[in-house]
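[Automated response] Your request has been received and processed.

Submitted sequence:
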Amino acid sequence: MKLLYTLLATLSLASAESRLPNIVYIIADDLGYGDLSCYGQEHFETPNLDQMAAEGMRFTSHYSGSTVCAPSRSALMTGQDTGHTFLRGNGAHQLRPTDTTVAELLKKAGYRTGMVGKSCVTGNTMDPQAPHVAGFDYFWGTLSHRTAHYHYPKSVFSQGKVVPIPGNNGKTGSVYIQDRYTEKSLEFIEESQEQPFFLLLAYSVPHATLQAPPEAVEPFIGTFEDEVSYAGDHYLACEHVKATHAAMVTRLDQHVGQVMAKLKELGLEENTLICFTSDNGSHTEGGYHFDLLKSNGELRGGKRDLYEGGIRVPFIVKWPHVVAEGAISEHVSAFWDFMPTVCEISGVSAPENIQGLSYLPTLKGATQPKHQYLYWELTEKGGRVALRQGEWKVVRYNVRNRKQKAKYELYNLAEDLSEQHDVAAQHPDKVKELVSLLKSARTKSPINKWNMILEDKVQ
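Generated structure:
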């Protein structure tokens, strides 16, 4: 009998070790590269994310899918950059049934898939079936991104139905929705623990409106010099702008800590890949400006810019026994790399029409293939494009201004991370080389308003 128990224990251990890893991907909204203390934030602390970085890998050259929400998340979901993914701008659109998503691919590998929080497959749309069409078994959160501008919604969607939130009036109330997102995520983890699961946890902070529970804001009141207030317009008024931003980020950090604690409590920590990032750089909305607390660090610009402050984001990965503790990676990667990475992990073939490149070798400390280039575009603000190849980066604004010759800026990020010195005049051949890549880096969008033409003439 003792021999039988030993054999059963051995088989159980072998089964646990051979099980595919759980995947938890946490994405913040408008969190800047410098908003975490492990990335240089000095005005407040993020101890849980700092611990996650100490126990895993911190990327220093990771990029979001775009500089605004919907296309950034579309790139994450489809493995395609903004020159190819369907959602290339904000607005009343959502991913199509024909768009292959990370969730669909992981379902094929036997994962239970869940998304909690701000929808990553819709823009300003309200189709309650959209998350499920995109491959998610479970969804609890907001669909229209405009609804996520306030943190006390009257209702959310769950499994295709409207779920009222008693005590909230849509803009204020008693249930801070980020807290509820955490609760629902912990429930999903508990309910899914018997099989591999993929959880996409999409918080809607620190995106404006600037709101946090009073008990979260109170410790920061009076701690910042030159505190500012905001009278409100589309976003709600805020008396303590700096204190509230700090409270939103530290509350987010606490939520991440709760998720990590639940994984440990359930014995899932050892076999879970957990990632944390932001959908774009810090913003200038709702009374906040990224310079107030150095949310983008030394990077230039912010949300809606294609300078580094708009697209370079924090990215932390923890995966015990696979990712070395305290590792720092300079590998240049982007949101569209997530799909091929999890496909390689789960043994599912990635689609051929993606621009993503698996960073699993980096996670394992192995030799990592590199991108030929990374490309971004923004359809707002007159049209903006950018391309990075190695340490060189070319940027152009006002693409749609047909009366003006093309003005391309060139930066060497190895020497000028803050992009203060345009060296296009000194390196005309490099400009022409990168502009040539720019012209071939995008396909025509079926949504005409998202199309831009890059003319041959270069100023």
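Summary generated for your ticket: The domain at 19-364 is CATH 3.40.720.10 (Alkaline Phosphatase, subunit A). The first helix runs from residue 2 to 18.
If you did not submit this request, please reply to this message.
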